[in-house]
Amino acid sequence: MSATAAATTTAGYLARRAAQKEKVRILYRRALKDTLNWAVHRHLFYQDASELRERFESNKHVEDLDTVDRLIADAEASYNKWRHPDPYIVPWAPGGSKFTRNPTPPSGIEIIYDYGREDND
């Protein structure tokens, strides 16, 4: 194998490994946030979050790229299966109950913020 081919192979390996690490990070964050939807009390969340972390840490040593891809696919399938049907949404975030409750006024309407302090000249 030439030096160029080895460098290409190494670059491809590193790029795929970096993409896998990013997928795992995103999956862990989504699963952790979804765990908070299922836990009614904070002490229950801490226990569930610890168990979730242990599940991810148990496969930390796996180095084979195809095995890692399979583990990611299995974890995503499990996440999609056990996702909360009605997740908590912060009220002022998109999809929340207060989102755009007070929309900006249409153009042409002037809002006077100094009401009650009019000039009495």
UniProtKB/TrEMBL annotation:
Complex 1 LYR protein domain mapped to chain residues: 24-76
Keywords, alphabetical: Acetylation, Electron transport, Membrane, Mitochondrion, Mitochondrion inner membrane, Phosphoprotein, Respiratory chain, Transport
GO CC entries: mitochondrial inner membrane
One GO BP: mitochondrial electron transport, NADH to ubiquinone
Transmembrane residue ranges: none
Subcellular location: Mitochondrion inner membrane
InterPro entries: Complex1_LYR_dom, Complex1_LYR_NDUFB9_LYRM3, NDUFB9
Membrane topology: Peripheral membrane protein
CDD domains reported in the protein's UniProt record: Complex1_LYR_NDUFB9_LYRM3
Superkingdom of origin organism: Eukaryota
PANTHER family assigned to the protein according to its UniProt record, in alphabetical order: NADH DEHYDROGENASE [UBIQUINONE] 1 BETA SUBCOMPLEX SUBUNIT 9, NADH-UBIQUINONE OXIDOREDUCTASE B22 SUBUNIT
Description of how the protein assembles with itself and partners: Mammalian complex I is composed of 45 different subunits.
Family assignment from sequence similarity: Belongs to the complex I LYR family.
Job of this protein: Accessory subunit of the mitochondrial membrane respiratory chain NADH dehydrogenase (Complex I), that is believed to be not involved in catalysis. Complex I functions in the transfer of electrons from NADH to the respiratory chain. The immediate electron acceptor for the enzyme is believed to be ubiquinone.
UniProt name for this protein: NADH dehydrogenase [ubiquinone] 1 beta subcomplex subunit 9
Higher taxonomy: Eukaryota, Viridiplantae, Streptophyta, Embryophyta, Tracheophyta
